[in-house]
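Posting this for the archive.
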Amino acid sequence: MDEHQKHRYKKYLRINIVSLFFIAVSFISVTLAWFAYSGLARTSIDATVKAWYIEFSKGNEEVSNDIVISLENISPGMETINEVVHIKNLGDSDAGLRYQISSARILDTEYVPDEKTLTPEELADKLSHDYPFHVNIELDRYYVKALDDVGTTFEVSISWPLDGGTDEDDSTWGKQAYNFQKKEEDRKKADPTYEIRPAIKIEISVTAEQYIESNISSDFDYNLGDLVIFDVVNNRSCETVGGNCIITHIIDVNSTLGNNSVTLLPDVRDTYGSGTFSDYNTVLSTITAGWGATTRALTVQDLLRFISTDITNSVIVTNNLSDIIIGNLKYGSRMNNNITNVINSNAYYKYSLDKFSYLSTNRCYWTSSNYNTNGFAFKKINDSTGKLYEEDASNTCNIVPVIIASKANL
């Protein structure tokens, strides 16, 4: 394909790729409803009656449980579009939240997830990574407690880097989008009652259910980023900081009742030990000598699990290319493949310190993970941004262990 054709197809793409629809469907009523509640769904004439009122809002406006987000067009270089829906629980019963992509159509290709050929998780991964545009979805928390007027957020981001190293894909999509649009217009001419389809349509099911304790239920007491004062010698929580009691933060994304322990990252504003990358294991052993707490090395995967949940500001930065949102790394080997691609591209990860303030440090901190012959480290770029990057193995950086703390001791 010559350069003129590529330009023409990109132009068609910019003009003609049409609406994205995200439909969040659930049984949740945004008007006051009542139901019999007795801990477990048990029919009883004297069962306690509680209010069930889940509110969805976007900006200052309340929205219905059918949330429709439509875009007139998307194109390479578009500004990242974010749709944030706030979910509040104004009733007096705790609610568990979950979402699932029910179906997706990309031009004429339709995807309907099942548990055999295409799982919902695989479809979410595909939409996040397998096209030149990227669709990412995230729940901030998987529950809303009763009478919680702060609640949580459900977010969708749509992005298309201007130069993500996929010029050939951009041109191919321009041609396919043009052909799809032309075919739709021809159908409309032949049948005036025909409704032209958008080029892309995605349906997302968001569900709120009565919270019932099980191994897979979110644990309200242990949330990502929560501060825990921990006695590293006696392996238990403390009331105040001092001596063996240090500040730590939970770095588990969604701790459940079935998880008997939590992962803690000690406060990086303190100093524990330092050395070159080759000194890592020796320094780590020295730091934890005498600790009664269970510890292990910090890995790049530990950090990526939670910084990737920011589907707007956590990006991959590569020289001479546009930044790309990290996106969904939960499915299969996607995370390790992503790390490999970053290393092969001499790239690094950038994240917001407004959201992950517990990574805010001017000093570099090693992870135990290799970046070619060097190592992955993290530190501040400025007051609002941090990076997870390649640090020269001969340089000296701080080292901090990860603590695995039993919930029974917290």
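The longest helix spans residues 167-190. Residues 2-49, 64-69 have pLDDT under 50 and may be disordered.
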